[in-house]
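Researcher: We're teaching a course module on how sequence relates to structure. For the next exercise, students receive a sequence and then see the predicted structure as tokens, so they can try to spot secondary structure elements on their own. Here is the exercise chain.
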Amino acid sequence: MKKTILLTLGFLGLLAVPAMAQLGRVWTDFQSYSTDLQNYLRYNLSETLKPLETSSQNALSGATGDLNIPNPIAAGDQVRKDITFFNSIPDKFENNQAIRSNAVTNEINRYLTRSSVQGMLGKEGQIRMKAKLENTETSIKDIEQYSRDADGFLSSIEQLLNAAKDAATQSTLGATKDQANLQLQSIRIQTEQSKIISENLYQTVLANQSLQYSNLNLANISQQMEEANRARRVDTSTEAARLLRTTAQVDLFGRKSEK
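Model: And here is the predicted structure for the students to work with:
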């Protein structure tokens, strides 16, 4: 009987284990995400940044902090300086360095947005998220099993209490039962809380997915607006050149008539 009581008391210390269990290695997951982000920036800078592709890559690398994520403000400032001091002819369609530097900065910001989407919704990102969701569900199942095990041990204590003959044993088992019952109620509460937390994680994943799609759409809209504005400036410059040529021809004809 005493051996059974000692084993039962030892089990009470194990009841607190589910409360101390933690899911996920957040720093490892974040490092994987930032690596995917950096890989996208390293291998996908398009021809829209040429001949400033190398300069833009250097600016992004120089603006990368301890989290392995570039600071878009610092990167944009560096690109503006490079265009202002080292690039006398910014672009074949745009000879205004200020406008060109803003366009390149905006393009870098769009690439940062796309790299974030790649890090979260790309192939590797989805593998990480799938593993996290699966591990969460496995942890919930484990906690539910702990709760069922605790129910079984509580039932065993009740059986021992009913079988006990002397008052001392009944008193000890009664106190053990009360303590085990409190621990069991705590585990049940934690089990329900864990389910709520897992549901919140799931909803957060869905919300982040929608947010990334929204950011991607905004980046595309921004790019389309810049292309439209550049086309408008090109058309305006072309029209101004045509009017200047026509004016010069009219002036030339007028001078011939005066002679």
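Model: If you want an answer key for the exercise: The radius of gyration is 34 Å. The CA atoms of residues 92 and 234 lie 10 Å apart.
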